[in-house]
Amino acid sequence: MISSTSLDKLAVVLSGVCVLHCLITPIVITLLPIFTLSALVEDLLFHKLMLWLVLPTSFIALFIGCRKHRNLLILGSGILGMALLVLIALFAHSLMSDVQEKVATSVAGIILAISHILNFRACQQRTCDDKNCSSEHHH
């Protein structure tokens, strides 16, 4: 079975890839105006692909982690980050400039990444009185 720790690490990496993408895309578009339309289409596809990867990974990791450490604030901040990503993906194109959309997406990704880091740490710090639980918890 996949652990919350592994999923948290994967989700942090995916969030980092998303932030890097948001930072690099404007530079690529500026430097290569011939490929602007192609870059925009690829940008939309990239965001959809990232949502399909990030949302289930994040939800499962945060849910499993919350079952261990019972910190609803971590789960809530993760859900906030995911909700913002979805709202931005659905509505930002018509409500925000490209720069505002990238900033908003980056902020949402950072919120989600921080949630996973906190989830990872909380799972690592989880202690238990049962001597037979060492396979479930890292002490």
What does this structure look like?
With 139 residues, this protein is mainly α. It has one domain (4-125). Helices cover 82% and strands 0% of the residues. The protein has helices spanning 4-31, 36-69, 72-95, 98-125. α1 (4-31) packs antiparallel against α2 (36-69) and α3 (72-95) packs antiparallel against α4. The longest helix is centred in the middle third of the chain and has 34 residues, at 36-69. Mean pLDDT is 77; it is low at 132-139.
The computed structural class is mainly alpha
Rounded mean pLDDT is 77
Overall strand count: 0
DSSP strand content: under 5%
- Give a quick account of the main beta sheet: strands, pairing sense, barrel closure: none
Our count of domains comes out at: 1
What does the radius of gyration come to? 17 Å
Helix and strand succession? HHHH
- Terminal CA distance: 20 Å
**Contiguous runs where pLDDT drops below 50 for at least 5 residues:** 132-139
Helix content: over 70%
Shape: elongated
Number of helices: 4
